[in-house]
Amino acid sequence: MNITPQSLRSDFPRLRDRQSSLPLVMGILNVTPDSFSDGGRYKDADAALRAAEAMVEAGADIIDVGGESTRPGAQPVSAREEIDRVLPVIRAIRRELDVALSIDTRKADVMQAATGEGVDLINDVMALRDPGALEAARDSGAWICLMHMQGEPRTMQADPHYEYVVRDVRTFLEARIDVCVEAGISRDRLIVDPGFGFGKKLAHNLSLLKHLRNIAAIRLPVMVGISRKSMIGALSDGVPAEQRLPGSLAAATLAAWLGAAIIRVHDVPETVQALRLCAAVQLAD
Asked: 178-223, pLDDT tens digit by residue?
């Protein structure tokens, strides 16, 4: 199932009413030197465009372009540097490919620059809490994904703790939804992400995945990003990120079964195949 930038907004009712349909697949395209799995692989626009082409050919519905690593311990970069990394890639993809585009950023200036080039979705790990982000997202007209993160990338894994992680994450997301609506952002432009691996221990991540339907009960599309994350390594004798495909597929399938509307992944062809099987089983008599 493919969508175009023009059809992304019209597809929102289908995303809101998740039953047995195939989730959208978001392909990860990091144009950073230090992302945990693919940092440095797509340093120039041509390499990034070739990667995006391959993901679209394999069935990706959305390409998520990121110019700042949010791995644990990552150091921030300036808005100018982030813009310089992502804009050539966004322009190249928009010029050559008919695919929905997302910008993975928490900075207002980057949001404005990216949506000015036709990006359809703002994917913000800070859920629009950084200065100016709420206003920039509101004025962009783009979809917005609000993600839960305890702390910030440099310190989020120091000692995360929750009273009850599923309830705490849902409460946070509902509060951010209210802030967005009060600021003039239509609820129909919002997506939520429980933030697997962002300020969470293994037990927290497993509980969130098991109870994903509780997050979906917010009645907004849920995005899930577990691809190649450390929780998979922790359950697989510490295998490195590039060897975590089996666990990533299992997580994607579980998330789809439990109501995720968008699955954010590194390995598009394999994930699309797994999700098609999942959807077929759900639709079977």
From this structure: 999 999 999 989 999 999 999 999 999 999 999 999 999 999 999 9
d(CA 143, CA 101) in angstroms, rounded, equals: 10
Q: Choosing from 85, 106, 229, 244, which is the catalytic residue?
A: 229
Tokens read off for 4 = 């175009």
Is the Cβ–Cβ distance between 134 and 107 less than 8 Å?
no
Q: Is 264 a catalytic site residue?
A: yes
Which of left, alpha, beta for 42 (phi over 0: left; psi -120 to 50: alpha)? beta
Rounded Cα distance between 152 and 125, Å, is: 9
Are 119 and 101 in contact, with CB atoms under 8 Å apart? yes
Q: Residue 152 in contact with residue 201, Cβ under 8 Å?
A: no
Give the pLDDT confidence of 47-69 residue by residue, as tens digits.
Answer: 899 999 999 999 999 999 999 98
Domain positions in the chain:
22-283
CATH architecture of 22-283: Alpha-Beta Barrel (3.20)
Residue 196, SS3 per DSSP: coil
Tokens coding 165: 């992680």
Beta bridge partners of 265: 27
Q: Hunting for tokens 């980057």 — which residue is that?
A: 110
φ/ψ bin of 38: left (φ > 0), alpha (ψ from -120 to 50), beta (otherwise)? alpha
Between the alpha carbon of residue 8 and those of residues 13, 31, 68, 121, the distances in Å are 10, 24, 25, 9
Sign of the C-alpha dihedral computed for residues 261, 265, 268 and 274 taken in this order? negative
Residue 200 is a catalytic residue = no
139's tokens: 């004025």
- Edge-to-edge strand ranges of the sheet holding 190-193: 190-193, 143-147, 121-124, 100-104, 62-66, 24-30, 262-265, 223-224
**Encoded amino acid at 169, one letter:** V
Q: CB-hemisphere CA count at 13 Å for 261?
A: 24
Contact (Cβ atoms closer than 8 angstroms) between residue 223 and residue 261:
yes
